[in-house]
Amino acid sequence: MKSKTIRRWSFIHTWTSLICTAFLLMLALTGLPLIFHHEIEHLLGDAPVLRQMPADTPHLDLQQLVAKAQAHRPGEVMQYFGWDEDEPNGVITIMAKTAGTEPNLSHTYMLDARTGEPVAMPSANGGLMMFILRLHVDLFAGLPGKLLLAFMGILFVLAIVSGAVLYLPFMRRLKFGTVRQEKSTRLRWLDLHNLIGIVTLTWALVVGVTGVVSACADLLIAAWRNEALSAMIEPYREAPPDPPGTRQPAARDCPTRRTRDAGRLHRLPRHPFFQRTPLRGVHERQHPPDLPLTDPGTDRRQHPGGHRDRRTTVVHGRHGHVAAAALR
Fold first, then answer.
1. What backbone torsions phi and psi does residue 322 show, to the nearest 5 degrees?
2. What tens digit of pLDDT does each residue of 194-218 get?
3. What is the dihedral of CA 268, 128, 281, 86, to 10 degrees?
4. How far apart are alpha carbons 307 and 97 in whole angstroms?
5. Rounded Cα gap, residues 282 and 125, in angstroms
6. Running DSSP on this structure, what letter comes out for residue 58?
7. Crossing angle for the helix pair 217-224 and 201-215, nearest 10 degrees?
C-alpha cells in the first residue's frame, strides 16, 4: 500500500473515531443497565405484579380488554396492545388523548388478561430506567436524535473498516498479538489498540451495522406500515364491527401466517448494543410492542386525528398477525 493511501486511511480512521467516541461511550454506559432492566425494575419495586389465580383461568377477549381499558381511563383512546412473553397473563396497554399522540406522551400500564384489572407500570411512565432508555435511544430529541445516533454508527463502521485496512501495513512485521513492552508507552498503547481492535473486529462491526439499522427503525417501520401492513388489513377495511361479546382471535392464536416475516421487521433491535429481551414497560413505551390502533391507509392530512373514529385494527407486532378488526 502506498504511503499516500495509508495517510488517507489514517485520516479517516482518526477523525471518524474521535467524532463518534463520546456517543459510543454514552451508548455503552446506558446500554449496560438496560440489559438488566428486569432485575433493576424488581429491585426498585417497579415491576408489575399480577394476582395469583388458577393456571387454567380463561383470558378475556380483545373487546372485553378494550372495554376494561377505556373504563380505567375514560376520555382516552387505545393506542397499543402488547403481549409480554415474560408475563403471559398480562397485556401491556398504552393509551392517550388521541390515537396519534406521540408515544412518549402516552400512559402505559398492564391489564390482567384474566380479569381486566389494571396494574401500574411506573418504570414505563418515567423514572430512572425511562431516563436511561430515552438517552440511549434518541437523546431526548425524537427522530432527529435517532438519526444523529445512526450517523455516529456509520462513523463507527468507517472507523472499524479503516482500522482493519491499516492493521496489515502497521503490524505486518510483528507476530499476531504482539505488545512491545520494551518500547515506549505510546507504542505499547498502540499495540494494545491494534490487538483489541482486530480481536473484536467482527463483534464491533455487527454492533455498528445493527445499531445503524436500529436507529433507523422508525423509518423502516413506517415504510413497512405503508406497504405490507396496508395490504394485510385491506380485507378488514370495510368490515362491520363484531357484535358485543363476540370473541376476537388473539394475536397468539390467529391462524394468519402470511405476514409473519413482515411482522418481524417491527421487532428490529432498538439500540446499538446488547439487549437480552424486549424492555418490558420502559421499552414498550419508547417502542410500542404492537402496531397502533390506526389504519395505515388513512391519509393523515385528510384525517387530522390520524385515525378513524369508529373502526381500528389491532395487529400483533411480534408476528404480524391480524389480532382483531373493526373494534369500536
1. -75, 115
2. 999 999 999 999 999 999 999 999 9
3. 90
4. 12
5. 7
6. P
7. 50
Which pLDDT tens digit goes with each residue over 120-161? Answer: 999 889 889 999 999 999 999 999 999 999 999 999 999 999
Q: What is the pTM of this model?
A: 0.69
Crossing angle of helices 3-35 and 128-138, rounded to 10°: 160
Cell triple for 42: 424488581
Residue ranges with strand state E in the chain = 77-84, 87-96, 107-112, 118-120, 312-315, 322-327
pLDDT classification of 245: cutoffs 50, 70, 90: low
Residue with cell 397499543: 80
- Return the C-alpha cell found at 105: 406522551
CB crowding 241-256: b at 16 or more within 10 Å, else e: ebeeeeebbbbeebeb
Q: Concatenated DSSP letters for 252-298?
A: TT----TTHHHHHGGG--SSSS--SS--TTHHHHHS-SSB-SS-TTS
Residue 295: predicted pLDDT: 38
